[in-house]
């Protein structure tokens, strides 16, 4: 079953067409990465799917038109982890992860035991139980990213939207976070739709890559099909070599222009 | 903060409030006695015979008790309204007067003092003028902010509040200049006062305060959700604009009612929530109920100071809340652990 279908998705922001007739299909359990240069419309696409932007065209979530879903019901199907989450420093990790249960509660309702269990499971899965009573502003960048992921997990949505999940993390933390996402995908059967700026990591972790440029889809397929020197040079304006290394897939290496 | 510590803060704050209420009814030129005061209060509530003599009983029931209860209602309202405003605007400097409530109330009160014929009626009209002024100001600010694009976040609304407040303050200054004889009365009102005539003022504030407290505290979980930002709250399925409108409306109406009977008492809406935040953490689940309780106790204590330090004269309560509140807040700010 297709988890996410975008049909001619277009978004206009401040008079500019940021996303222009973007169509894509994401199968249940698949990890699809949106790549493309800055301003290509990757984040806009995620925000439109999460229902945060007005758009033209259609978004189908688990085969239902997203426009027909109440905000709360959409949030039960789609969890968004923004690139730079606003972190309220003075609450505990547990209180923060508990916010992920919001779409499952009535307007003025409070959490039941099942909600606390979901939070415990999310904290456990991201190794955050020892941190659960720590304040968010005492955590490192990698720990915060895990807390944000835990909040999205607690949301119990089958589709996870990740906007640059590794931005501002060091190489080790990047790998750690992506491994966690991959493990969660396996253990919970999640569908992952993410933007990624690191092409090598995108090629290593995603099943398929969608290359956006100027709001349009310009290439789609496996890492082998999309991570080519010609496509990257054309759309990123970058001089690169693509090296097919056994064991680590397609490595995109910047090449310094000869002067 | 551990959950065990959280469970201790609530009873501790209730203890603080009870101590404040007792101090409020016991401190004064006439000695009443703690036991008698408690028994007489119960006697009045349950329609029994009061153990106090006629005049002592009147001092308790007609003077001290209404004033103490009024201070508690106003203090709890200003504190929880301040905490609510800080939550919906994600702005630590927000206070209940942010959207022009103070300026509107000031204009309303000044107009009444200046144009209403000097009579016993002025005393009745003043709270109405202040209440109407505060409500009109906030509604105007809300409409202006909405037209400027409330979807863009809380910034537009705050700017609209500042705009409306400056405009109304200018009007108020103009009216005051035209009627110089009103300056003293208006000024004393602006500094805040808790003078009561029996239970009338309590009756004015009570319904608004209780409804607003209940409504704001009912939103405690949603205010936590708003703390992650409008976008993420929306992605969690929350209708941010509706939460903001409901909480602001509740906080504003209660503030207007409080201002109408007590004038502009500054600082409570900032200092009380922030002190609690520093001690207990920023989750609104605990912050909002504690703000009501501690705010109530704080203003009762402030009023005790206001009417005793220069007795028989009274200090304006707004001066007391700032004079004693600011140093206390400074100490809390310095001693609380703030991770960088």
Could you characterize the architecture of this molecule?
The complex is a heterodimer of chains A (259) and B (340). Chain A has a 6-stranded mixed sheet with strand order 6-7-8-3-9-10, with helices on both faces. By secondary structure, chain A is α/β, with parallel strands linked by helices. Chain A starts with a strand and ends in a 5-residue tail after the last strand. Chain A contains 9 helices and 12 strands. In chain A, a hairpin with a 2-residue loop joins β4 and β5. Chain B has a single domain, classed as ABC transporter involved in vitamin B12 uptake, BtuC. The longest helix of chain B is centred in the N-terminal third of the chain and has 36 residues. Chain B starts with a helix and ends in a 5-residue tail after the last helix. The mean pLDDT of chain B is 86. At the A-B interface, α2 and β6 of A face α9 and α10 of B.
